[in-house]
């Protein structure tokens, strides 16, 4: 069955980015001129996703407004003859069908996914986490979907990270199938460095079979007292093969201030309008260090 639907859990409090995220969602922080969440929605659409559900919460209303039409703004741009900007604004609202459900309590990522169960039904689906902005020639989710279509099992995006960072991630043990593709044999959410089974971290892109919902329903709280998606996928892997994909592309952790800064520089240097002047500016700054 084709993967048509994607879940975007966006109810998190964004504490790593306070005070910027005190009253506005971290997903709306702009990378140059687009909010983080738009990059991820564009990735999902480019990968072939047709319907998105945001699992949202209080203080997240501006995400809904961003993906809605904006009649006042549109007629203002039309009057001023700003056709290019007008098209860009309209495209956001027309990109994909979007639905919303509220996660009333912050009980964890696993719980957020369970909130979208009725919308997903009995279909395989994707999960995209908004902190991870992935820049690659083939969208990261498309790489996962290609594997799903081949193996017909759940697929997680993986990246090798320095061991001193592994405790910030879900970590996997694997049997390698090829250099990039593996079968997952064990998973631990945010292990201590000495308990981590490898240096391979789960990155915020998943393709999951609907069997995960029955497991999540009964999943006890794990790390941090939260219902962890990682724990549920580990149990899923006892019943069905779960695969990992070392994706091709550059990932920026934009939930982190340094990661966000690096992403801004990287993306700016790729844009024709900034490349020259911003590059010169950075070179000048580097000379003073
Ligand atoms: C979540 C997952 C974790 C994964 C990470 C990727 O953690 O629980 O397994 O490695 O996303 O970004 P969070 O960063 O939301 O705490």
Listing every helix as H and every strand as E from the N terminus to the C terminus, the arrangement reads: EEEHEHHHEHHEEHEEEEHHEEHH
- The CATH C-level name is Alpha Beta
Kindly state the number of beta strands.
13
What is the approximate shape?
A: globular
Structural class: alpha/beta
Provide the CATH architecture. Alpha-Beta Complex
Major sheet attributes: 9 strands, mixed
Name given to the CATH homologous superfamily: Spore Coat Polysaccharide Biosynthesis Protein SpsA, Chain A
The quaternary organization reads as single chain
Strand order of the largest sheet: 5-4-1-6-11-8-12-10-9
Characteristic key phrases:
alpha/beta, two-stranded antiparallel sheet, binds 1-O-phosphono-alpha-D-glucopyranose, single chain, 9-stranded mixed beta sheet, 289 residues, 11 helices, Spore Coat Polysaccharide Biosynthesis Protein SpsA, Chain A
Task: Chart the SSEs and their pairings.
Elements lengths: L4 E5 L20 E2 L2 E2 H11 L4 E6 L4 H6 L4 H9 L3 H12 L2 E6 L6 H7 L1 H4 L4 E4 L3 E4 L4 H12 L2 E7 L9 E7 L4 E9 L10 E9 L3 H7 L10 H11 L2 E5 L3 E4 L3 H14 L1 H16 L2
Parallel strand pairs: 1-4, 1-6, 4-5, 8-12
Antiparallel strand pairs: 2-3, 6-11, 7-13, 8-11, 9-10, 10-12
Helix pairs in contact: 3-4, 5-9
Bound molecules: 1-O-phosphono-alpha-D-glucopyranose.
1-O-phosphono-alpha-D-glucopyranose (G1P) binds next to strand 11 and helix 9.
Plain-language structure description:
It is a single chain. By secondary structure, the protein is an alpha/beta fold. The protein has one domain (5-255): Spore Coat Polysaccharide Biosynthesis Protein SpsA, Chain A (Alpha-Beta Complex), CATH 3.90.550.10. Helix content is 38%, strand content 24%. It is built from 11 helices and 13 strands. The chain has helices spanning 36-46, 61-66, 71-79, 83-94, 109-115, 117-120, 140-151, 212-218, 229-239, 257-270, 272-287; strands at 5-9, 30-31, 34-35, 51-56, 97-102, 125-128, 132-135, 154-160, 170-176, 181-189, 200-208, 242-246, 250-253. The protein has a 9-stranded mixed β-sheet with strand order 5-4-1-6-11-8-12-10-9, sandwiched between helices. A two-stranded antiparallel sheet has the order 2-3. A two-stranded antiparallel sheet has the order 7-13. Helix 5 packs across helix 9. The longest helix is centred in the C-terminal third of the chain and has 16 residues, at 272-287. The radius of gyration is 20 Å and the shape is globular. The mean pLDDT is 94. The chain binds 1-O-phosphono-alpha-D-glucopyranose. 1-O-phosphono-alpha-D-glucopyranose binds next to strand 11 and helix 9.
